[in-house]
Every structure is written in C-alpha cells, then in structure tokens.
Amino acid sequence: MTTPSHRQQKSSQAAGWRPWPPILGVLLLTSCATPVGVQRVDTQDAYRVLTANAVATGTASEYTAQVLSRLNLGEQFEHDPAAALVALHGHALTALNNDQVNNRLFALAELSFLHAEQQKQGSPPHCQPRKGWACPPEDATPHAAEQVRSYALAAAVYAYAFLFPETPEDGVRSPADPRLRLAYDLYNRGLTEGLTSSAGEEAVLGSGRYRLPFGEITINFVAPDFMWAGHRFDRFVPTVNLAVRGLRNRYRRAGIGATAVKII
After folding, report:
1. Which of 27, 62, 229, 256 has its CA 20 to 30 A from that of 48?
2. Is residue 20, in this structure, part of any structural domain at all?
3. Residues 123, 137: Cα–Cα separation, whole Å
4. Could you tell me if residue 180 is inside a domain?
C-alpha cells in the first residue's frame, strides 16, 4: 500500500479549499452588532432629545414614552390613540401611589394635546378592537373640529390636575422637574385650542358645558368690562400662534391661562 507524499497531501488540501462567499462575510460582520449601544452626539442633538415634547416637536416626551412603555400602550397609541387614552385614563384611576398618579396624569395631558394636534392634520385611524385594547363608545366620536376642542380641553384638565392636586402633599415634586414647565404650556395651549372657534380663528368666550373624551366640563365665564373709548369688545383672537414682524422686541408675561387680543 502506498501513501501520498507530503507535497501531495498539501496539494489535495489546497484543491479542497474554497473561498467564502462575500455575503457570508457580510453576515459575520453584521452579526457582531449589539441591539443596544452608545454613541457620542453634540450638545444640540443631546438637548433636542431631552426636550422633545408634544408642544415643541410634535412627539411625546421621554417621560410620557416611559409611561406608555410600562403599561404596554405604545403600539396602541400609535394605531388607536383614542383607545389608548381610554386605557390610560383607567390606569390613572387605579394608580397605587402618588408617583403613579402624577406620571399618568402628565402622560394623559401630553398625549391628549398630541392627539388634538393630530386631529387637525387629518382623520385618525379607526379604532379596531383587539385583545386587551378598549375602544371608546360609538357615540363618543364627534366631528373632527369638536374632537380637537374635546381633547385639547382634556389636556388642560389633566395638566391642571397634575399641577394643582386636591391635597398639596399629593403633588410634592422637585422644582427642577422639567414636566412642571411643560404642564403649564399644555394647560395654556389646551385651554386656547379648546376655546377656539371651529374655523380656528377666534376665541369663544362664554359659559357652557363642553364635551370631553371622558365626560363633560362646565365653564363659567365671568366677563369683565371689555370697554375702550366707549366701545365694547366681544371678539378676540388667540395670540399663541401669531407671529409679529416689524418690532425689535416681543415682551411676554409669564402666567397661566389663554391669551387673546381684541379685534377692533
């Protein structure tokens, strides 16, 4: 019996070697990537992520996104925002401690305002009942303009409850909590949108019962003496979305409430 020489063995090994296909090399390279990672960003990008919210960027803040994630409502809000708000409202009513109440009230305020803004962009997707998902009653789907006012007023109600709880100890939180400033903005903006005419041009100042996604609210309007040079003013325009040109400075006074100017 003869055995192959050393050179023959090397030749046979070389003849049996085949280069890996390029796609296999790509798969090996990409398989090293991890699902979680960290990268450096500049100051402005980092600040934009930290301060993103429904008013400034049209997206939920990190605080609200965390609430949705913990309650497994993120996907539902994306597809059926009205149904997700119904579910979140229920979670707020069954919260176990003050922290849960405050977190969910703030999320309800921001998401209600965000949904109101989305209503102005177009019709929302129709609620499709799914396992674990609740849909609002059929009679709770008013006209789009009414929905905008309804959810905007709801944002103001939730924000007010977050800012001014029934007992002071229920709302104890750090003055450095950035949600406080945003809650004031949500209240002011929600009140403005909720008391704006269907055309979106004039403020509707009057007493009455206003529809909310979860019920109704009664507003009593005490009209001051809107008189100037012997003329009474009864028409007003909200100022939050007005841009001013031709003036060097624009002065603002901090406060809570909706601002409007008189129509002359």
Report:
1. 256
2. no
3. 17
4. yes
Q: How many Å apart are CA 65 and CA 142, to the nearest integer?
A: 27
Is 71 contained in some domain? Answer: yes
Q: Which residue shows structure tokens 């674990």?
A: 132
Integer Cα distance of 79 and 25 in angstroms: 39
Q: How far is CA 205 from CA 64, 120, 188, 229, 233, in A?
A: 31, 21, 15, 22, 12
**Residue 237: partners with Cβ closer than 8 Å, 6 or more residues away:** 201, 202, 203, 260, 261, 263
Residue 140 lies in a domain: yes
d(CA 55, CA 61): 10
Decide if 152 contacts 190 (C-beta within 8 A).
yes
Q: What are the backbone angles phi and psi of residue 9, rounded to the nearest 5°?
A: -60, -45
- Torsion angle of the four alpha carbons 173, 179, 123, 195, in this order, in degrees rounded to the nearest 10: 80
Amino acid identity at 19: P
Residue numbers of the domain that contains 67: 53-221
Q: Residue 142: which residues within 8 A CB-CB, separation 6 or more? A: 150, 211
Averaged confidence pLDDT in the chain: 81
For the chain, the domain total comes to 1
Checking if the pLDDT of 231 tops 70, the result is yes
Q: pTM for the whole thing?
A: 0.77
